[in-house]
Design brief:
The complex is a heterodimer of chains A (112) and B (112).
Chain A lengths: L3 E4 L2 E4 L4 E8 L5 E7 L6 E7 L2 E5 L6 E7 L2 E7 L7 E8 L7 E2 L3 E5 L1
Parallel strand pairs in A: 2-11
Antiparallel strand pairs in A: 1-3, 3-8, 4-5, 4-9, 5-6, 7-8, 9-10, 9-11
Chain B lengths: L4 E3 L2 E5 L4 E6 L4 E9 L5 E8 L4 E4 L2 E6 L4 E6 L8 E9 L6 E3 L3 E6 L1
Parallel strand pairs in B: 2-11
Antiparallel strand pairs in B: 1-3, 3-8, 4-5, 4-9, 6-7, 7-8, 9-10, 9-11
Classes of the chains: A mainly beta (112), B mainly beta (112).
C-alpha cells in the first residue's frame, strides 16, 4: 500500500462509452501525475498537476481529459476511446521536485 | 526519443547471482530514480540518487551515477526469486516541473 489509491482496478468500455478513472492520495503531496503504460513501451507521461494547476500535457488526444479538483484527487475522464488506448493507467504523486513519486496500483483499461 | 533507456531489456540469472542493469539518458538531470514493478502492478521506488552523488546503497541494492557519461547502473546482489520484476530508471529533468521521464525497463527473471 503506497498511499495512492486508484479506482477502478479494471475497466472494460466500448468505444462510445464515457468513463472516469479516479486517483486519491492523502500523503500531502503537491503534484499528481497520469502515466500510460502499454505493452513493450516506456511509461508515457500524460499529465502533470502541480498545486492543482496543469503544468504538463504531453500531446495527449482530447479524448482524455484530466481534472484535479483539489490536491488529493485526480481524475481522468475518458470518451470515445480507441482500442489502441487499452493500457495500464498509472497515477502517481510526489511532494516536491527532488523526491520520488508514489504510484497507485493502476487501472487496467480495455477498450472494445 | 525517450530520455532514459535501460539495458538489457531482459535479464535471466540464477538465484544467488548478482544482477546489473544500466540506464542511459540524454539531458541534464536533477536526480535519477530506480523503480521496481511487479507484473501488472504499480511502481515502487527503490533508490533516488542526486546529480551530485556518485553511489548509493540500500540493502542489497547499489546504484551508481556517472553524469559525465549520462549513465546509471543498478546492482542487485545475492538475487532471490522474489526479485523477479521489471526495473525502471526515471530521470527528473532540470527545470522539468516535477516530471519524471521513464525508460523502457529491464525485465529481470531470477531462476530458483
Amino acid at each position: 500500500e503506497t498511499g495512492v489509491t486508484q479506482t477502478p482496478r479494471h475497466l472494460v468500455m466500448g468505444m462510445t462509452n464515457k468513463k472516469s478513472l479516479k486517483c486519491e492520495q492523502h500523503l500531502g503531496h503537491n503534484a499528481m501525475y497520469w502515466y500510460k503504460q502499454s505493452a513493450k513501451k516506456p511509461l508515457e507521461l500524460m499529465f502533470v498537476y502541480s498545486l492543482e494547476e496543469r503544468v504538463e500535457n504531453n500531446s495527449v488526444p482530447s479524448r482524455f481529459s484530466p481534472e484535479c479538483p483539489n490536491s488529493s484527487h485526480l481524475f481522468l475522464h475518458l470518451h470515445t476511446l480507441q482500442p489502441e488506448d487499452s493500457a495500464l493507467y498509472l497515477c502517481a504523486s510526489s511532494q516536491a521536485p527532488g523526491v520520488w513519486a508514489f504510484f497507485g496500483q493502476g487501472t487496467r483499461l480495455t477498450v472494445v | 526519443s525517450q530520455q532514459g533507456e535501460e539495458d538489457p531489456q531482459a535479464l535471466s540469472i540464477q538465484e544467488g547471482e548478482n544482477a546489473t542493469m544500466n540506464c542511459s539518458y540524454k539531458t541534464s538531470i536533477n536526480n535519477l530514480q530506480w523503480y521496481r514493478q511487479n507484473s501488472g502492478r504499480g511502481l515502487v521506488h527503490l533508490i533516488l540518487i542526486r546529480s551530485n552523488e556518485r553511489e548509493k546503497h540500500s540493502g542489497r541494492l547499489r546504484v551508481t551515477l556517472d553524469t559525465s557519461k549520462k549513465s546509471s547502473s543498478l546492482l542487485i546482489t545475492a538475487s532471490r526469486a522474489a526479485d523477479t520484476a521489471s526495473y525502471f530508471c526515471a530521470t527528473e529533468l532540470v527545470g522539468g516541473a516535477q516530471k519524471l521521464v521513464f525508460g523502457q525497463g529491464t525485465r529481470l527473471t531470477i531462476n530458483p
